[in-house]
UniProtKB/TrEMBL annotation:
<dbReference type="Pfam" id="PF01419">
    <property type="entry name" value="Jacalin"/>
</dbReference>
<keyword id="KW-0430">Lectin</keyword>
<protein>
    <submittedName>
        <fullName>Jacalin-related lectin 23</fullName>
    </submittedName>
</protein>
<dbReference type="GO" id="GO:0030246">
    <property type="term" value="F:carbohydrate binding"/>
</dbReference>
<feature type="domain" description="Jacalin-type lectin">
    <location>
        <begin position="5"/>
        <end position="152"/>
    </location>
</feature>
<dbReference type="InterPro" id="IPR001229">
    <property type="entry name" value="Jacalin-like_lectin_dom"/>
</dbReference>
<dbReference type="InterPro" id="IPR033734">
    <property type="entry name" value="Jacalin-like_lectin_dom_plant"/>
</dbReference>
<dbReference type="InterPro" id="IPR036404">
    <property type="entry name" value="Jacalin-like_lectin_dom_sf"/>
</dbReference>
<feature type="domain" description="Jacalin-type lectin">
    <location>
        <begin position="161"/>
        <end position="203"/>
    </location>
</feature>
<comment type="similarity">
    <text>Belongs to the jacalin lectin family.</text>
</comment>
Length: 203
């Protein structure tokens, strides 16, 4: 039985730190969040694989003592929200909050005095109670950006594929990339009157 996942683009900055991607797991057992005086600096996730093995992934840098938010074995995360702001030279995550399938909510992680002074830009990842099964983002000395993976309904059979006729002219040579699970990125170049280049990054 195949499972479907949806990867949502990260919220926050796209300049500082480096990209990371934890991929997807069966569930999440614990979230740990650290901060300094202006931002979220550290996250650690305890994931559970299908065979029950616990895998830990951590990102950023520990400044103050991180806070923990554990989940029950039959509980999962259904929403992650927070805010991002530019307290320094780059945009960073400044607060985080987690909601679960049992109606519980984590503390609002982040420097409280900053939240009173600077509203920042709010964000939330939520999809009608669907289960969050992984995280990705950017980090260096702090958490620059954060995104999630949602688990969607499982499939027992593959969806049918439909090939639509190409639109445009008949010149040039024919090409066909075939089919993939999804498209991660599309790059386009142009000159003064037309599209001259396409590049697709597939999943």
């Amino acid at each position: 039985m195949a499972k479907m996942y949806r990867k949502l683009a990260p919220c926050g900055g796209d300049e500082g730190g480096h990209e990371w991607d934890d991929d997807v797991y069966e569930g999440i057992r614990k979230v740990c969040v650290g901060q300094d005086f202006t931002r979220i600096t550290y996250v650690k996730f305890e994931y559970v694989k299908e065979d029950g093995q616990v895998v830990t992934r951590e990102h950023g840098r520990i400044s103050q003592q991180p806070q923990e938010f554990p989940l029950d074995p039959d509980e999962h995360i259904i929403a992650v929200g927070g805010s991002h702001h530019r307290p320094d030279v780059t945009e960073m995550i400044t607060s985080l909050v987690v909601k679960t399938s049992k109606g519980k909510q984590s503390p609002l992680f982040g420097p409280k005095y900053l939240l009173r002074r600077l509203a920042g830009t709010d964000f939330v990842f939520e999809d009608a109670g669907k289960k969050i099964v992984g995280f990705h983002g950017r980090s260096g000395n702090a958490i620059d950006a954060l995104g999630v993976y949602f688990e969607h309904d499982s499939l027992t059979t593959s969806l049918p594929l439909y090939k639509l006729e190409a639109q445009g002219g008949k010149e040039g040579r024919v090409w066909d990339d075939g089919s993939f699970d999804g498209v991660k990125k599309l790059s386009i170049c142009q000159d003064h009157c037309r599209i001259t280049y396409l590049e697709f990054e597939y999943e």
